[in-house]
Amino acid sequence: MSTKLQPLSFALAALLLAGCSQAPNADDMAKENAADMDMPANEHAKMAEPMPPAVSATAQPAKTASATGTVESVDTAVGKITIAHGAIEAVNWPAMTMAFKATPEQIASVKAGQKVHFEFRLEGMDATITQIMPMP
Ligand SMILES: [Cu+2]
Questions:
Q1: Could you tell me the pTM of the whole model?
Q2: What's the 136 CA to ligand 1 centre distance in angstroms?
Q3: Higher pLDDT, 60 or 110
Q4: What is each CA distance from 26 to 4, 17, 20, 21, in whole angstroms?
Q5: What domains can be seen in the chain, in order of their start residue?
């Protein structure tokens, strides 16, 4: 072994030691960043999308369901059709009589006492008719 190499070896060893004692965290971070950059941008978008905003945690997502019932009354001024409907499993409802929001056209298409088939969207406590038609 040549004595000339020793100072260099020592310097290298010192460098490596210095690297070992101070760099592990920085090295790991560099690896993570590299892994991050390997992930396509759209993968990030997919990961971010399903995260719901904190506000919606208590709000029910909109549901749709269909049912049959009998029109009890219509209220053009308020924009509602009151229907005595049967149990609706899709929204976990027993049979009941309740008011549904409806458009003037929908309200005009039915009258009290009529049997109807209808579809509605439920958002929280708001049930809005999306389709309604008299049953034969
Ligand atoms: Cu109901």
A1: 0.57
A2: 22
A3: 110
A4: 33, 15, 11, 11
A5: 5-48 (no CATH), 63-134 (2.40.50.320)
